[in-house]
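So, can you check?
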Amino acid sequence: MSDRTAAAIGYVCGHLAGIREHLEALGDTGPLDRLLAAVRSGEEVAGPLDRLHEALVAGGDVLGVYGNAGRGLHPLAVEPDPGEFVYLCPQRRCARYRWPSPGSGAAPSCDIGGTPMTRERLR
């Protein structure tokens, strides 16, 4: 998977509610639903991601998923001292990450698939 695709999926993951709301206003959440199904099942995502991008652009979002992803990642939380570990996408399909929360014993869950994120040691 390319860095561009991973960043775009990371953007979608971090903005699911807003993207869904925008598509609902346009009357068709199908492109988002098909992308989420592909991510969850481990299928190829380039085509569904392109179609979501096109739907967003056609609906007035001039940047779509690719242009917005190019503006940088939007981590859910950034702690001043992340320690030795970071949580990554459990399927390695997106570029999002989360720092461990002090005192939390459980791994955060993926916003798309709902499965626990993978804990990785920083190098």
